């Protein structure tokens, strides 16, 4: 069996890749949920803060999912799909 040697640079790149992936997923989830919240709150004459709250909740859930994905399988991705 071949020996695997990782230097510090590899570990930093792996953590950086995972961090960028997770940040992108959290921000995109916030924006998608926020925009969806605005679409719903405007016709119902509700406060835009409800849309922001919905976006925040979606982002927190996306962050939790990404952290669980990392804990479950050591990868460079925040995805729950195998091999991503």
Write a short abstract of this structure:
By secondary structure, this protein is mainly alpha-helical. The chain has helices at residues 8-41, 48-72.
Helix and strand sequence = HH
CA(first)-CA(last) distance: 25 Å
Regarding quaternary structure, how should these chains be classified?
A: single chain
Form type? elongated
Tally of extended strands? 0
Written description of the protein model:
The two termini are 25 Å apart. It is built from two helices and no strands. It has helices spanning 8-41, 48-72. The model has no long low-confidence stretch (mean pLDDT 78). α1 (8-41) runs antiparallel to α2 (48-72). It is an all-alpha fold and 84 residues long.
Task: Give the tags.
single chain, mainly alpha, 70% helix, elongated
Topology:
Blueprint: H1 8-41, H2 48-72
Helix pairs in contact: 1-2
């Amino acid at each position: 069996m071949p020996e695997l040697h990782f230097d510090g640079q590899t570990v930093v790149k792996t953590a950086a890749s995972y961090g960028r992936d997770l940040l992108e997923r959290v921000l995109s989830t916030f924006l998608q949920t926020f925009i969806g919240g605005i679409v719903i709150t405007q016709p119902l004459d509700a406060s835009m803060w409800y849309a922001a709250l919905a976006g925040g909740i979606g982002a927190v859930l996306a962050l939790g999912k990404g952290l669980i994905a990392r804990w479950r399988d050591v990868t460079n991705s925040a995805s729950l799909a195998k091999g991503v």
